[in-house]
Amino acid sequence: MLNDIQSIKKLAGEEIEKADSLKAIQDLKIKYLGKKGLLTAKIKSLGSIPQEDRREYGRILNELKVYIEELIGRQERIFKTAELNKTLQKQRIDVTVPGFYMPTGHLHPTTQVLDEIINIFTSLGFNVEEGPEVELDFYNFEALNFPQDHPARDMQDTFFIGDDVVLRTHTSPVQVRVMEKNTPPLRVIAPGKVYRCDADVSHIPMFHQLEGFMVDKHITMSDLKGVLEVFIQMVFGAETKVRFRPSFFPFTEPSAEIDISCVICKGSGCNVCKNTGWLEILGAGMINPRVFEMAGYNPDEYTGFAFGMGIERVAMLKYGIDDIRLFYENDKRFLEQF
Ligand code: PHE
Fold this sequence. Notes:
The chain is of the alpha+beta class. It has helices at 2-18, 22-33, 38-44, 51-90, 109-123, 137-140, 173-181, 221-236, 289-295, 311-319, 332-335; strands at 127-128, 134-136, 165-167, 186-195, 206-216, 242-249, 252-261, 278-287, 303-310. The protein starts with a helix and ends with a helix.
């Protein structure tokens, strides 16, 4: 029995030493310590040993068991570490490899300019209102003092939906809608889409306007001038000059077109301003008493100003864009510049 134990110890020592893989170690574990293992067999055979020797053999076998377990455990750890290092090496993450570019979108230039303009007017105390894009002839024309068959209706190439229904050609109908529902004082801006049957470098069938108006007792043209100057200098810079030029709109009297000093040449003359030094930016005027009457206001009590501007036009002047159609062609090379 002692000889057997000695040779098991020797063999186990040699074999475990020589094992060259985790698999080999695990096989040896079974060979010696498994249910039918060499050492296990010896331990099981203790029963057939005379009573007086059993204790001593038991102790020796137990020592051997601990010895083999330790040898195997040590080798196992070595191979496991090696294997782990191998997988870590294989799956190594090179943190210096440049990442993938994840393209992110941004707001459309029209929206950006519209937001900027809305912020300026709300900071001046104006409230934002909206009206429908499919509008009654009454609000788009009639209540704004465009009489039936008046040639002024030809100023705007209207998309008709029905006899009395149009796609609004401007945001001015919101003036009437707001006045009908509210009493002065009013300080309102009304941004939104408008539609005209027209298309060239400076016209598209759908574009954006922002209407603004102020109604109260004693509102004068100098209020209009003050508000527009503040607005224009905030958008185009403090050095921008503003000029009022007489004009005509059925719903304002007097009416004006407002020019700013050319954003490109600063007034000295270039091809953008066609050598005039000025760029037209919006239409405005004092609200026509006829409009007040149709909205149910007493024109002897209230006065007010109104103005309207094309948002894409403001963006074109601000960024030096020469073709309005670029806004809606969805060419990323254009859009990405904003
Ligand atoms: N509604 C006019 C247009 O579309 C602009 C405007 C608005 C003019 C308000 C005067 C007052 O051309």
